Amino acid sequence: MEPKAQKKWAMVVDLDRCTGCEACVVACHAENNIPTVGEKEAAIGRAMHWIRVERYYEGDFPNVKVKFQPVFCQHCDAAPCEPVCPTYASYHTPDGLNGQVYNRCIGTRYCANACPYHVRFFNFFNPAWEKPLDLQLNPDVSVREVGVMEKCTFCVQRIKATEIRAKAEEREIQDGEVQPACAQTCPPKALVFGDLNDPRSEVARLAGSNRATRLLEDLGTKPKVIYLQRDSWHDGKESD
Amino acid sequence: MTEKSQINADLLRPLFRTSWRFFALVGFLGFFVVAAFAAFGYQMYTGIGVWGIRRPAFWAFDITNFVFWIGISHAGTLISAILRLANATWRRPVTRCAEVITVFALSIGAMFPIIHLGRPWLAFWLIPYPSERQIWPNFRPPLAWDFFAINTYLIGSVAFLTLPIVPDWALVRDKANGWRKRVYGILAMGWRGTPKQWSRLESAMHIVAIAIIPVAVSVHTVVSWDFAMAPVPMWHSTIFGPYFVAGAIFSGIAALILAMAGLRKLLHLKDYLKPLHFDNLGKLLLMMSLLWFYFIFAERLTTWYGNEPSEMAVFWATQRGAYAPLFWTMVFCNFLLPFPILAIKKLRTITGTVIASVAVVVGMWLERFLIIVPSLTHKYMPYNWGTYQPTWVEITIMIGTFAGMGLLYALFSKAVPIISIWELKVGLHASSVVRSPLSVAGTSGRLTTGHGQLTTDN
What is the ipTM of this complex? Predict the structure, then answer.
């Protein structure tokens, strides 16, 4: 078998399709063993949602437009979080992911300050699940202890599992074969995941759209999440 | 009694005689230090969530205190080194109590990068050593540079502090009996006061004094880079290096004035720490106050002219938003109050400079807080803007640092003459030869002609 091309995992978010239902948030919590912190902690801003749906309102009532924008780790190619970690807990993997090595993290929280997207979450306390909810933890994902930073991994456990399966069957990974929990769950299919280095992939096709933008692109972080802007907002017309 | 034995009697008294007041002070300060350690223990046991930090203000009191104390540490060594190199004769009673501030403030400040960790028990992972984990620390983050900068400064300032103490320890050794003689005998490291020893001490002092100045400047520059290297609005700025250094010296001088005023009262050093010293340091503080105002003006003006939206969000939050009361208190404390006090000669008294210094210390603490928190809570995406409120744990730890500084200072003044005795005598020795214009004006300033023949036994 000839050497496989390097993967460049990326996600496309079609803002025209997002309805703000937040199924992705729930799916992510279930898949990645993300603890819920309780009402009191959440109220002061310690809730942990690796993916969140931001709501921005434009205009005054009754002509209000709500814009939903799912935000999660942008897996930047020039990630501000990576050089500031003194222990290499925040680390760039060869296939372009922003890895977070929980065991190396000592909790300086510098990465979270440097991240312009606010997508890094900190374990202020040890996580706890009420019985019997502890039985539904995903065995493929480690549970993080107090003092450790965590964030969206693009469901790296699913990527790895697919890689292993494909290797065992001596074949390439098919486009769409890797599905992070959020993309798998999204009812209107607003989230599309794939390999940006494969020109035939759905992600690469959508990334070429004239609606494609990246979040806070001018900061030079080179994010690998591509947002397709809402066409339906312009001139009162629906999008293509 | 000759002048020299008077100096010995006055300055060695705290080492040989201890009143109940000292124990009361140690007990009082010790209580808060123990409370702070207990709070830290509670935080380690429960999780750092017992602090008020939250998303997006992941740093707040912890790093404020870190920068503040590292800033205070710039009082001593830097000022003392400059005064020594400039051969400012009035420096003699001031240098040691300044140098002590550096060592202790630096030690306290350097604890915060450990205290503030999510998992403080793993702090040693910042140290480069061959470990079973088979990875070095990452040398790219400014946090790692801090580690080396602060340790260099700490080693340098400990050397700068202890070198000129050696002759004084020898003096204590010669005056003492019993266990004191043994302990100070070891500390004096065989000092006999030979001309050779004096000349070596002098050249060593010169080398360290020259070397420590760039180190001090670099330390607070590196501390400022903790912020300037991150793409956070109002952090990512080239002005931060000099701005932080100037602020550090500013707060450092204020801390020195407060320490001197405290020593003067508690150890009855009225004849040594004279109004002249407070007047001179007051002038230095005035200059730094003007310099601080220049820096904050330049920082604010360029931001406002640049009119970059993400920076303007932080700008207005501090200028007239939620942080405005703190901001204008800071301007009052750092400039509006100290400026007239220090500029008007009549007001530049001991009481005047102490009032100005208290204001400056408060103002400079606020400055560090206002650099950190408003920026973090107003980053690029408004959906995630937040706020911050400290909890009792953070406040207890902070009070503990102030008490700790006082405690270390009090204990130090029991172990070491807080005013350099031999340097004071050098001043006296020279005075019989040349009288300076200052001493004619009724002050203690004297010129020196050198001290090659001086020994410790007089």
Answer: 0.90
